[in-house]
Each structure stands twice: as C-alpha cells, then as structure tokens.
Amino acid sequence: MIPSREKIKKPKPWAHTEPITRAQLMNMREEFWDTSPHYGGQREIWDALRAAAEAELTLAQTIIDSAGVIVQGRDLTLCWDERGAKYELPRYVLSEPTNLIREQGQ
C-alpha cells in the first residue's frame, strides 16, 4: 500500500446518538485512547494517531507523515501502518458532534 499524499482533513459534521456535554465527549475520548492498544497494532502508531487527532491539521499532517501512517479516506478514521496493521478511529476522537451541549461560560 502506498501512502496517500493528499492532505488530511477533519471528518464531515456528525451527530452523536443523543446530545452530549464536552465532559462526556472528553470521557469517551480518554476511554478510547486508554484501550486503543488492545485493538492491535503498535503502541507508537496509536500514540502518533492520538497526537495527530489532538493537533491542528498542519501539525497533524507532519505527525502522520513522520510516523509512516497510511491514511485511507483523508479524515484519519481508517489508517494503516507500514506493516499492514489497521487502525480505526471513531469520529468522536477527531471532532466534536454537531449536537454537543454548550455549557454555561463556554
């Protein structure tokens, strides 16, 4: 598989099954990243994917390129490493849902 040279982008707008708060979203993200190495693949690639998911797009692109991650579909929801291991990222670790509950003071 040849790495794509297209620039990565944020996922398309999406809605969670029910409105959630930022705190709930952050808990979902932490739970995913805490358990992600158990899905297979290399810990270093999972760490690079997390760093990319939490970075601005330009830095994310640099992280992905440096780690040798092969992105399928440009939005990081499906990636591969150079050994052929598959990495699937849920949209909630990549962007906020359209039905995020805005809390007071935000």
UniProtKB/TrEMBL annotation:
Signal sequence range: none
Chain ranges of the DC-UbP/UBTD2 N-terminal domain: 6-103
InterPro entries to which the protein is assigned, alphabetical: DC-UbP/UBTD2_N, DC-UbP/UBTD2_N_sf, UBTD1/2
Pfam families: UBD
PANTHER family: UBIQUITIN DOMAIN CONTAINING 1 PROTEIN-RELATED (PTHR13609)
Protein name, per record: DC-UbP/UBTD2 N-terminal domain-containing protein
Organismal lineage: Eukaryota, Viridiplantae, Streptophyta, Embryophyta, Tracheophyta
